[in-house]
Design goal:
Shape: globular
Radius of gyration: 19 Å
CATH architecture: 3-Layer(aba) Sandwich
Number of helices: 13
Number of strands: 9
Distance between the termini: 39 Å
Largest sheet: 9 strands, mixed
Strand order of the largest sheet: 3-4-5-2-1-6-7-9-8
CATH topology: Rossmann fold
Structural class: alpha/beta
CATH superfamily: Vaccinia Virus protein VP39
Bound molecules: S-adenosylmethionine
């Protein structure tokens, strides 16, 4: 049993994530015309400090790039693809993709989160013309699950507690024999942005395993997964991060098992993924963000905590893995 209070503290982390994104947009690190519609007026706060904005920028840019590569590869191979965002919160990625260059590549975009979060999101979508217009013809958009879900031709929002057995959640929501929403024949990308740390490693593995089992019987399975998370929480700075969250009653049962960046791909490789890689945000900022972008953002705000920046960025990582059947491995290539 999970306590209601502990769960509401976990849900509050979505407000943090959306405020951090809004702040990075207001300060022009990122462009996102949709996030403002998902932050309730009553939650508005002053912009975040530069260090947080830079972290948000590095994280968003890197994940956007991995997702872009996924959509581009699908397009190149003449297939459409599916994206499933677990613990999606107030994320705007669906709207950005559906109005971008790769919109025709998207067969389905599925978001899952606690019902308290999905009902607020469903409400925000219905209240905002900018958000609802992207879903298509209003006649094709339906509210479901007593207001906690929403369906449109491409976008689907579902309430679920991701710690429960996946057969009962994902199985019934996405793969019911009477009409599976996810096709096991299409390349499918899973997004876990800042969510696995709130559940036990056993529960996280069970989620990933469910997808592997759903897709692997297909001779042409292509399953990708991106995890963004804080890690290295055993060192002195990491312990401060954990303490700060504890003070807000957020516990991190998923924090322990990956002490360093080299251990992170193990999460995927242990489940039979074909390949997996991990980079810290510090490494991504140094070696992967285009120089022109780094120069552009260096003009936005004065920052005097440059050493602290590296320390913070060194405690967040992106891990991405690919599970691909031998028959399509060469065509799909590396990621
Ligand atoms: N992925 C979004 C992003 O990056 O902007 C939101 C991140 S927020 C830090 C974590 C989200 O995971 C929250 O919306 C929270 O409700 C959700 N979450 C955490 N544990 C969950 C669970 N057991 N079941 C469903 N959602 C969960």
């Amino acid at each position: 049993a999970h306590s209601q209070d502990a769960d509401s503290s976990i849900r509050l982390t979505d407000t943090d994530a959306s405020l951090a994104r809004l702040s990075a947009v207001q300060k022009r690190y990122l462009e996102d015309p949709y996030i403002k519609h998902l932050v309730p007026r009553s939650h508005l706060q002053p912009p975040r400090p530069p260090l947080i904005n830079i972290g948000t920028f590095v994280r968003a840019t890197a994940i956007d790039d991995l997702v872009f590569q996924w959509l581009q590869r699908s397009t190149d191979l003449g297939t459409r693809c599916q994206i499933v965002s677990l613990g999606a919160g107030s994320d705007t990625r669906f709207w950005r993709i559906a109005t971008g260059a790769h919109k025709v590549a998207l067969a389905a975009y599925v978001e899952l989160d606690f019902p308290e979060i999905t009902s607020k999101k469903a409400m925000a979508i219905r209240k905002s013309r900018d958000l609802s217009a992207v879903l298509g013809n209003p006649a094709d958009v339906t509210v479901a699950h007593g207001g906690t879900g929403l369906h449109s031709p491409t976008y689907h929002l579902f309430p679920a507690d991701l710690r429960l057995p996946p057969a009962d959640t994902l199985g019934t929501l996405l793969a019911s024999p009477s009409g599976a929403l996810l096709s096991p024949a299409l390349p499918t990308l899973l997004l876990f942005e800042c969510v696995l740390v709130y559940m036990t490693p056993t529960a996280s593995s069970a989620l990933l395993q469910w997808f592997v089992d759903y897709f692997s019987p297909e001779g042409s399975a292509v399953l990708g997964s991106i995890v963004y998370e804080m890690f290295r929480l055993q060192d002195s700075f990491g312990r401060v991060m954990v303490e700060n969250l504890r003070a807000r009653h957020v516990s991190l049962p998923g924090a322990a098992p990956y002490p360093d960046v080299h251990s992170l791909p193990g999460r995927f490789l242990a489940l039979g993924f074909t390949a997996a890689r991990a980079l810290t945000l510090k490494e991504i900022r140094k070696s992967y963000i285009p120089r022109t972008e780094l120069e552009r953002i260096s003009q936005l705000e004065l920052i005097d905590e440059i050493e602290e920046l590296d320390l913070v960025l060194d405690h967040y990582a992106i891990t991405w893995g690919l599970f691909v059947s031998p028959a399509v491995a060469v065509a799909w290539g590396e990621w």
